[in-house]
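question for whoever is on the cluster today: can someone run the full assembly for these? two chains, 415 residues total. i dont have access anymore since they changed the login thing
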Amino acid sequence: MTANAINNAASDYELAQASARGNMAAFETLYERHHRRVYSLCLRMVANATEAEDLTQEVFVQLFRKIGSFRGESAFTTWLHRLTVNHVLMHFRKRGVRMEKTTEEGEISEIQDIVQSMSERPRFVDRIALDKAIGDLPPGYRTVFVLHDIEGFEHEEVADLLGISVGTSKSQLHKARMRLRELLNKKI
Amino acid sequence: MECRVVVSSLSDYIDGRDMWLSVSEVREIETHLGTCSNCRSVKLDLTEIRTAARELPLHTPQRALWTRVANIIETELPKSERRTRLEMPELGWWERFKSRKFTISLPQLVGAGALAMALIAFGTSNIPTGTPGRNYITGGQMALLPEEDQIKADLERRLAAINARKVKWDPQIRNDFDKHLGKIEESLKDSRQKLLTNPGDMVQRQMVLTLYNEKRQLLDDVERLKW
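^ ran it for u. tokens below:
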């Protein structure tokens, strides 16, 4: 059996152990398996391909440095997922990205949405349009939407990651969804 | 319950009505939705957005990203552990080389940047102080810069030796080498033509020098690997 075939058949945990011993081929296999998920998460959170690539690079370098600490208690994907999210959030903090505040303006826009929707019919959501619209969201809304609706974190986890209350997380998510609805309506 | 209140509660209703809303709130919302098509439309849209978000495709970064990761990690591996790498060191280098951004990709941004790069590459002491705009006619082809003939002769001699060995290379490496060399030579031809049209163009002059330096570095790299 070739070395490549051995690596391809190995579990993430086995590859992580091999990587921790300095086996680059094993780490490359891990990269091949997971880089798209990491990159997609970074891309949707920062909405910039170049920035997302830089962040993905940093995540995998950090992964290599920390991979010896992965003990297999959780799934490797979960561990990597959390590593990626934390890294992007740290990036946001360095850049000074702030969460959008809930204001009366946001509430007024909801009413406008209702009025607008009075002449509209339900529609099929174009996933490509949705992906583009996510990139057009304000950073704070986008972060919560990506973490909750795309990556599957619960509000308690989102709140913990972002240092906000559960109520704020829920509010931001709702406003993100309403904004996306507005953006998707404009494309039709 | 008013539409405004219902709409503001819809995300909680969709995501976990049992968790986030009281029994009475759920009942009121459902009663309202039963009579209000507008709010039903909003609910449907938000549900579709949530569903679609879970089914979004994965994106793929550039292939060269792994090379960047590997380069950084390589420097952190102890020498004794680098033997576990399965890929050829030369190929690893070649992957790095392929991801290089050539200055020739910026001809439209030629200006201070190109001038600065040329000065760094050659050092001001290496740039002949011949009169700008004066052409040096040698052989059958006009040399636009002092010592250009000498530079070209040296590069052509080295390239001839490399071309003789190139037939034995891995086809992918050979193709990549030819592609990069082709880009340099195309840009060099373009810059020389502009300099010929306007011999006083100092920016193009420096661009030509930079491109010769790029070509020299390409050949240096290949010769260092003893391919």
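summary bc i know u wont read the tokens: Residues 3-95 of chain A form a domain with the Rna Polymerase Sigma Factor; Chain: A fold (CATH 1.10.1740.10). Chain A has two domains: 3-95, 104-186.
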